[in-house]
UniProtKB/TrEMBL annotation:
Protein name in UniProt: Uncharacterized protein
Keywords: Signal
Signal peptide span: 1-27
């Protein structure tokens, strides 16, 4: 009986992980498209798929060409 329950649990976990509702979050890579200085920070602007995202950096830093979100 324990083996049947273990097999059922394993099946549900594997089946659930392949559907959109249970899919684990994956890191998305953003590509640098611009930068702005808004004192006292540097804002790096990245394109992630069809979205645009900003990352705030401290003064004196530079924007990396890619950024993992």
């Amino acid at each position: 009986m324990k083996n049947v329950l273990k097999a059922l649990l394993a099946y549900l976990i594997l089946a659930g992980s392949t559907t959109a509702g249970f899919a684990p979050a994956h890191a998305a890579t953003g590509y640098l498209i611009g930068q702005e200085i808004r004192a006292p920070y540097l804002y790096c602007i990245y394109r992630v798929g069809t979205q645009t995202k900003e990352v705030r950096m401290d003064a004196g830093r530079t924007c990396p060409k890619t950024y993992n979100f």
